[in-house]
Design a protein that fits this description.
456 residues; alpha/beta; 11-stranded mixed sheet; 39% helix; 15 helices
């Protein structure tokens, strides 16, 4: 029998149905893999073995038809589960014991998945590198000296290490896509508002998105179908396997490729050549207002995060990590008029972007990171004055989509010379996740860059 760590969702479900492995054996195999990986990767905050055992007993008494039934999952430690401590990646004074379970966890429970752990994350989701002053840095399973990206660091690392078939993360400015790219998995940032955020710790409420990370576009599509409280009539798997003939992919001639490393640029060109061979038409597009959009995104994020933390930061500011505290304090320097202006301009800029870009193409193609994945040491700046510039550089290609509310998917497209994954990004029209998933799936099939498991 092949190693379950390498199984896709459908392969795992097929093994369960053929009884080549039992649900209990599959879950215990994942728990054993976590015990082996945790001292090296540090992707978990808490292993929820008792909860998993309870779920196994529950599933034995219930019939589930979902492809996720009986499969191991884990989530960033900011998704509420009634009565269970939610750390938010911070010190004990900031921990929360919720009296409700988040909508998305209820949906995955309904689908029969089994949560086996809560996962490491940047404190309060503030961070693009994977560092955490309270729980320790999360390490990239492809090379332990390198960053995972953040803030959904543990989610990407756990999937990349083959510990779970999928995980949930959150994305306010790239927090799903950056770690997905750094760890060689697929991460979807859905259209703003598509996936419910009730019962999820907010960072900046009007920018926050919840999305899945998995090792293939198909697995992400399966998770999306399970996350919907009211299933769509066609489902997110509906276009997988369809031809991409005639699909127009936009290549931005500004912003996204500015100051890109030659190694990354070469892999981006190779990925575009694959899409062209799949029948896509490549068109050049100009992205409008990118500098303005960057400023407006930071104003909204800084203002909303500062407002959420205002009471706690004043009362117990000492338990915040130095980087988190420094970034939150910057939010208090933003005038209310700037925040109101940024919110009022959002609809205008979204329409302007859609008109300028998507009248020419169906999807926008871009890198996730413009440089190869850096080492943890290189980006360990905490409250260093250069911290803001470093975070801005890491999220250069991801932050605009949150302000504009657009869906985007990150997927691996190769490896750098240092042996770390490189990720491409496809950005779509609002609520057109199906086209994103179809294109990502076709690219995987054409390149066989899919279902990667790191040999940590």
């Amino acid at each position: 029998m092949t190693n379950p760590r390498h199984w896709s969702i459908l392969t795992a479900q097929e093994a369960l149905q053929k009884k080549t492995i039992s649900r209990q054996e599959l879950i215990y195999d994942s728990l054993s893999a976590i015990r082996h990986a945790q001292p090296k990767v540090n992707c978990c905050i808490k292993v929820t073995e008792q909860h998993a055992q309870s779920r196994l007993s529950e599933l034995a008494r219930t019939s589930f038809s979902s492809p996720l039934a009986g499969l191991p999952v884990a989530h960033k430690d900011m998704f509420y589960r009634q009565g269970a401590v939610c750390t938010f990646g911070t010190a004990p004074p900031g921990h929360h014991i919720p009296d409700e379970t988040s909508q998305v966890l209820r949906q995955l429970d309904k689908a029969g998945s089994i949560q086996i752990a809560t996962l490491n994350m940047a404190e309060f989701a503030f961070g693009a590198t994977g560092h955490n002053e309270h729980f320790g840095a999360c390490h990239n399973p492809w090379h332990l000296d390198y960053m995972t990206g953040g803030s959904s660091s543990g989610s990407a690392a756990a999937v990349a290490a083959g510990l779970v078939v999928g995980a949930l993360g959150s994305d306010t400015g790239g927090s799903i896509r950056i770690p997905a790219a750094a760890c060689g998995v697929v991460g979807l940032k859905p259209t703003n508002g598509l996936v419910p955020t009730r019962g999820v710790m907010p960072m900046a409420r009007s920018l926050d998105c919840v999305g899945p990370l998995a090792r293939s576009a198909r697995d992400v599509a399966i998770m999306m179908d399970c996350l919907m409280e009211e299933p769509t009539t066609t489902g997110y798997q509906s276009r997988l396997g369809h031809s991409l003939q005639g699909l127009k992919i936009g290549i931005p001639n500004n912003y996204y490729y500015d100051d890109i490393d030659n190694e990354i640029a070469q892999l981006m060109q190779e990925s575009l050549a694959h899409f062209e061979r799949l029948g896509c038409e490549l068109v050049e597009v100009t992205v409008p207002d990118h500098d303005i959009l960057t400023s407006l995104a930071y104003i909204v994020l800084g203002s909303e995060a500062a407002a959420y933390h205002a009471e706690y930061l004043e009362e117990v500011h000492s338990y915040y990590g130095t980087q988190t505290r420094a970034r939150l304090l910057n939010g208090y320097l933003l005038p209310a008029s700037a925040y109101v202006n940024a919110k009022q301009l959002r609809a205008f800029h979204t329409k302007r972007f859609l008109d300028a870009v998507y009248q020419h193409c169906d999807l926008l193609h871009a890198p996730v990171l413009r440089q190869p994945v850096p080492t943890l040491k290189a980006v360990d700046m905490q409250a260093n004055p250069q911290m803001s510039q470093m975070i801005t550089a890491l999220s250069h290609c991801t932050r605009l989509t949150n302000y504009l509310g657009l869906p985007a998917i990150a997927q691996p497209c190769g490896f750098s010379r240092s042996g770390l994954p490189v990720g491409l990004q496809l950005i779509g029209k609002p609520f057109d996740e199906r086209t994103l998933l179809s294109a990502a799936n076709a690219f995987e099939q054409a390149t066989n860059i899919t279902n990667l498991v790191a040999p940590f």
